[in-house]
Hints:
The chain has helices at 2-22, 25-44, 48-68, 73-87, 95-112, 117-134, 139-160, 164-185, 190-205, 209-229, 234-251, 256-274, 276-286, and strands at 288-290, 293-295. It is an all-alpha fold and 306 residues long. The chain has a domain at 1-137. It has a two-stranded antiparallel sheet with strand order 1-2.
Amino acid sequence: MEEKHGIFESVKDGVVGTIKGTGDVAKAVVDTISETLSHTIKGTGAVGTSLIEAISDVGRAAIRGVTDVGGDVGSAAKGAVVGTLRGTKESSVEALDAIQTATSSVIKETSEVAGDLGNAAKGAMQGAITGAKEVGLSATEATAAAANGILKSSSEILSGTGKAGTSLIASSSVVIRSAIQAVVEVGGDVGSGAKGIVLGVLQGTKVSGKEALQSISEISSSVVKETSDVAGDVAKAAKGAVQGAIAGAKEISLDATEAASAAAGGALKAAEEIGSKAAQQVRKAVTGTINGVKVVLKEPFKSKKS
Length: 306
């Protein structure tokens, strides 16, 4: 316990000291975490569970240190994920596990210090996407892992407040909004982002059957709405959502055709609400065969008159 306490305090104090010296929150967090994890791995030979615990500790410590000096929690979250990926690059821990653990820890600690969860989620997602490039991960894999970690911790936080019935919907909406904003702001591909979001939410919630199909429809609808709100490509987002549903279906023993249909239907429903042009673009994007699965759009979906 002393060692864990030592890592937490060391990172928190290091982040505080560097920020006071330079004023650069993101760099302070990235450098402190990457150096601490690298030193921990080399000095103690931390692997497996002990390394995952260390990743969680340094993420929480970074958020605590930044909030202690009134810094931006979004920048801290982004720096924590990038720093974690850099610090564990030469270790045995899988990069996807590192992302899930880091994103989950920063969300939990942000809640503990009453910080802005949406800002933290967006920062964590940005960190996953930008950090992924350094360790050879695809944007889709990184987005899915981050969505999984954020969703898991968000659901636990909301369930702990007695809002278990609404925790899935509430936490999913935070993840989706934050993820889409992050993808657009870092210049990423919104199609890959949408795929990763749907896949990550399905992995994080572990729902099945009709509940899973309903979730896929709602998630895909939200993805298209949020993409429209940040002036992103709704057609790419819709197709990516369908691809994510197909990939996720395999993991939860769901029929891929039904999953694809649910995603396409949800995406088109949102597009109809946006306008006739968006509906036409999305309908074209999700019609036909995607990733080897024939997408069946369930009618009626009629474009609204402008």
